[in-house]
Amino acid sequence: MSAPRLIVPRLAMQSLSNRALTAFLTVLAIAFSVMLLLGVEKVRNGARQSFANTISGTDLIVGARSGNIQLLLYSIFRIGNATNNVTWKSYQDITNRPEVAWSVPLSLGDSHHGFRVLGTTPEYFERYKYRRGQGLTFAEGKPFADLFDAVIGADVAKALGYKVGDPIVVAHGLGSVSFVEHEDKPFRVVGILEKTGTPVDRTVHVSLEGIEAIHVDWQTGMPMPGENITADEVRQMDLTPKSITAALVGLKSKLATFQLQRAINEYRQEPLSAIMPGAALQELWSLVGTAETALAVVSMMVVATALLGMVTMILTTLNERRREMAILRSVGARPTTVLGLLATEAGLLTLAGVALGVAMLYGVLLALRPWVDATYGITLAIDPPTAREWMMLGGIVVAGFLAGLLPALRAYRMSLADGMTVRT
Amino acid sequence: MSAATIASPASAASNADDVVRMRDVKFRWPGARGFGLQIDSFTLPARAKVLLVGPSGTGKSTFLSLLCGIVAPSSGTLEVMGTDLTRLSHSARDRFRVEHFGIIFQMFNLLPYGSVLDNVMLPLSFSSVRARRASQGGTVEAEARRLLDSLGLDAHQFANHSTAALSVGQQQRVAAARALIGAPEIIVADEPTSALDRNRQLAFLDLLFAEADKAGAAVIMVSHEEELGTRFDQVVRLDEICRAQRGSAAA
Predict the structure, then answer these.
(1) CA-closest candidate to residue A75, choices A132, A128, A133, A112
(2) Looking at the complex, does the CB of residue A388 fall below 8 Å from at least one CB of chain B?
(3) Among candidates B114, B118, B126 on the partner chain, residue whose Cβ is nearest the Cβ of A333
(4) Tell me, what's the pLDDT at A60?
């Protein structure tokens, strides 16, 4: 036995299910727009988080004279290339300054199956910090000790299926397919790093001397014909590098940061740049901020479009629903009931759209996370919506309800004007 | 259930024999081409069966809108069950309507979704008075089924049917059951039989009147077919009780 009072909401639901297809498409449009809006927000936060978590504990990054952002991107994020190198002598000068507590050289330029090869010193594994001071740990093996030892990041190991002891041939240049390889001097994997969610995961680490060794018989990017130095011969040579790409520098006192930065920027022997990672990141955000805002505005427009679509859907059904209105009014439904019915319908459609959108977003995040991580090194957090996101979602539902008032008011006026006449 | 047991709180002050009394009622639809109506005098006695006839364009629908309180007259008195509708607010008139009126339209009476039973019980969700009366003999659903059966629609077979599958004649029976449920004092019918052939028209009227008598309800029906008048207590010509103004608009 159905309670008579419940008939009206039930009829409202039945009315909706009578138009199930259009209602579903409307909900789907809203869901997609919500997914886009929230997805942009998630990716934005994920990217910022990933970037901000990539470097920690380093006071200055030193490289050849270039823009702050460029230096940060190529030295830490392995995005783009250095235009110039830093000579070994200049690096030594900086390292030997009294303010400097430690320094780690970085030498980039080669690759292995699309993964960057980084020449550095074993100190790198102690000094490099990410995510608020977390250090690198080894999943397997140990830091490199021999000239042809290599330590690989977690993604490299996973993608290429390497284990400790496997040989690696480094390719010259940075393409994922390279025709010029340092095949005469293979490296051996001695360590695999734990996953960090930073570009370290996609890096092959070798000693600075190792980088030098594979290039001794090369000139201007190509092997020199007739000159073939074997791996054993190269061990006897002086492998002190002539230049490095960049260096991470830690100071004894943070107070000296600006002073040293200035000194490096004004270094006379060679044009150099020193940047503070945090400040460079801020600079990057302000640069990216405009694009982020544009993206956010576009996704809000998409939400607005979806809501407009819903209003259009309700408006087009309004004419055929005049009959429904007249019947409801004849049995005592007030015009406000009719108003409430339509506004509630819009609110419910929006709510369903938002719920579906959020569900779809988490589904997509879950599905795409490994790929985004592997391709862009951005770890997308699968967290419940933040307070800000809840507010955005709530705002959309309210907007949908308010948008629903438009057809509702029209129906209200129509039902007043129709009186007892049932129009077909 | 007899009419004597139904006491409307509003009816005490007035002549209990008249459920509707109109005097000097003036009304005009809003808008520039608004159609207007002026009714000098009209009364509907309790339990009476009145046929209101008139050619189209004389304001039959407007008259019914006024009677049911969907629109309010600009002047005059319009008493229903002793209550002056002109003094009631919009929403009070809406509440008043469902308590005292059962309404049958010419066609398209039913919500296309929802079952036959849902449609019959619809007024009860807006009127607790009618819901109470409908459940006096048992449940409201039982009363809805009884009405459907009495009106010649096998409730056992049709109760949970979708209304969209019904024929026009069957739809009008459902509409009549909806108008009658909870025993309102006045049944208003706007050409309810115009889509039926003569035999079914008369059969429908007989069943409607029988149930209206059981509920003690007056019936006022609008039609352009004067021949139906023989079945009614009284035939009122609309153009004799009221004057239409700028009657170019549709009735």
Answers:
(1) A128
(2) no
(3) B126
(4) 93
